[in-house]
Amino acid sequence: MKATVCGTSYGVIITSPAWPFQPKERSIDIWGRRHLRYIKKERTAMYTELLTSGRLNTYLDDVNETGNETNAPYKANGGA
Q: Which pTM does this prediction carry?
C-alpha cells in the first residue's frame, strides 16, 4: 500500500487508496432538510457542535433514513 502526499498552499494532503473510512456519498432528502431547518433555528448549539465536529451530514442522513422508514407505510398506501 502506497500513500500519496500532495503539497498545497494550505498544507500537506495525505491520501491512501486503502483508507478504510472513505466518506459515503449521502444525499439529504425532505426529512433531513426539515430537521436541519429546525436545529438551525431552535437548537443552535447542537447545530454548531455537529457542524464543527464534521458529523452534521451523518446525523442528517440518519434522521432522513428514520423519517423514510417511519413514513414508508404511508407511501405504500398512496399517502393516505
A: 0.60
